[in-house]
Specification:
Immunoglobulin-like, 3 domains, four-stranded antiparallel beta sheet, 22 strands, Ig-like_fold
Length: about 280
Amino acid sequence: MSRTATIDIRYWPWSILFISPGDTSDIADVIEDTTFVNRTCSADCNPDCSYIWINNTNGVNISYTPLLDLSKPDRYDAVSPSISITTSNCSEIVEKDNVTFSCNVTSNPVSDIKLYNMTDNNMLFTWNSANKGEYQFLNILCLDTGEYMFTAKNDIPDEHYIMKNTAYIEVMLKAIFTKDPEITIIEDRAEIHFIISGSLTQIIEENCVKNTAICHKANITVPTNQYLRSTQVPDIYDFTVDVPLADSEETEFIFSFWMYDGDDLLYQDANTIPLN
């Protein structure tokens, strides 16, 4: 009489393989809401193994099946797929306005946000680990006109995932004639005295704004160029233009006023000046 014995050999898993469709690598790049990836886990073990997936971000079990769906929006290592910029007072910005730049970033994990002034290549502010950045200009000046850029970057080590968006703002000069010019006729010339108010103090101090007064008379243009200087309280500019008279029958001048920053026209206004 013979006897047989069956031995059931048991052992721990000795190899684990991650597989995604069409890819045999261990790493999959997943972009939130734009990429669908399935990862499977297989192990050589006896008896059959059960599977536990661990989220490296928080260290908790997230699945008990061999199949892991990485398309869920709460997964880690998603990049910054969008960045948007809004500005207040965007229809027309004039000097001394308060202007706010707002940047909203969609990313997981959260991103570091930076704001740059592209005109002078200067970084203005950084928000660390944020999904929103807000920057306010108090009493904005026409010198702040230019292009601004927000960037967003999270901890994915790839330059491709630095998101950028730019906005351009133009700050209009704010200047008006405060009252009708005063005219004094002296023989063959007219001395025109007028006052303009505006928010030009910083610009004037940097000598970058030039006033051009032009008197139209019988299709003859007589330019008078000078730098503005504040002679009274700040933001009030009081000066006199001396204009020759060619025809005593003329009854009025059309006085035009320009302000330039270099060759760039910042502001233009006109006023009709009667001579009687």
